[in-house]
Amino acid sequence: MKYLKFLGVLLAACVLVALIILGLAHGKYTSLAKEQQPEPKDLVLRVELQDNWLADGERIARMRGCSDCHGADYGGKAFIDDPGMGYFVGRNLTRGLGGIGADYRVEDFVRAIRYGQNKNGNYLRFMPSLEYAQMSDEDLGKLIVYLKSLPPIDRNFKDLSPGPVAKVMFLFDRMPLLLSGMHIQSGAPVSVAPSEHADYGRYLAASCVGCHRPDYSGGPIAGVPPSWPPAPDLTPRGDFAKWTFEEFKKALTTGERPDGRIMNSQFMPWTATAAFNELELRALHNYLKSLPSPEI
Fold first, then answer.
1. Comparing C-alpha atoms, which of 288, 199, 166, 165 is closest to residue 238?
2. Which residue of 116, 129, 182, 287 is surrounded by the most CB atoms within 10 Å?
């Protein structure tokens, strides 16, 4: 009897702690989501947009994996619909019904992509702006030229709504793409000169940190379902250190690893990296090869 009473008290305590955590998580997320942010000072790009940037902008959109969340036609896509994680959707970026393209000026796109804020100054609920924050004005301008040229797609979605698991993960800093604008710092360059040098590779590698971590040491990926495999270690400690440039190029453009296995594009977006040209691949390879071993 005493044992059952003890179990009952323990269960009640666990439920109480869980409710407190859920309450704190919901409160933190709701408060930050509603908070209006001051307008960033550098929303005006320091370059003049060019009509002939269209092809470059389309390639940048592919390289950056925009279609992963916004759909192949950029008319939007629901990519998570789970009772625990919630309902996550990439917005319709076109000028069609349900899209933002007709209402968004260039400055609004800058605010959304680079700073993770909507045109009203609220944090976008789910946007990998940490990967775009240091994109040069020129490259961002090319991307915006392409986005503003998209044909209209009529497609509506209900509002994105994080579930209790996502909010708890956010409370403990395990959901970095949720309200990611709160972590953004300004200071993007006007342009970056392409070269095979590792410095240019570091610029391109900004898209890799979301999964491989800022030190590229890999491991469990924050904010994804637990069924996802850990991201590989790209430092000298991992298998990647043994890859030649040709093996690296083949893996990023065809998905085939040196051992002949094909990488699952859901976990490693080689369909996006396939848009890299030879110079960009060499720069990225040179940068990753220059990484130090992570401190243990």
1. 288
2. 116
Which positions ≥6 away from 265 have C-beta within 8 Å?
255, 271
Binned average pLDDT, 10 residues per bin, the chain of 296 residues: 72 84 90 89 93 96 94 94 93 97 96 95 93 95 98 96 93 90 88 97 94 93 84 93 95 96 93 96 97 79
Q: Helices 164-171 & 2-34, crossing angle to 10 degrees? A: 80
Q: What DSSP state is assigned to residue 5?
A: H
Residue boundaries of the structural domains of the chain: 51-183, 198-289
- Residue appearing with tokens 């990439």: 90
* Element containing residue 286 per DSSP (H, E): helix 278-289
Q: Determine the 3-state secondary structure of 250 from DSSP.
A: helix
Considering only CA atoms, which of 191, 160, 186 is closest in space to residue 39? 186
Q: Which CATH number fits domain 198-289: 3.90.1170, 1.10.760, 1.10.287, 2.50.20?
A: 1.10.760
The two tokens of residue 122 are 């609220």
DSSP string computed for 80-93: EEETTTEEEEEPB-
Pairing of strands 77-82, 161-162: unpaired
| pTM: predicted TM-score of the whole model, two decimal places | 0.93
Q: Encoding tokens for residue 128?
A: 């990998």
Residues comprising the chain, all counted: 296
**Which neighbouring-strand residues pair with 161?**
87
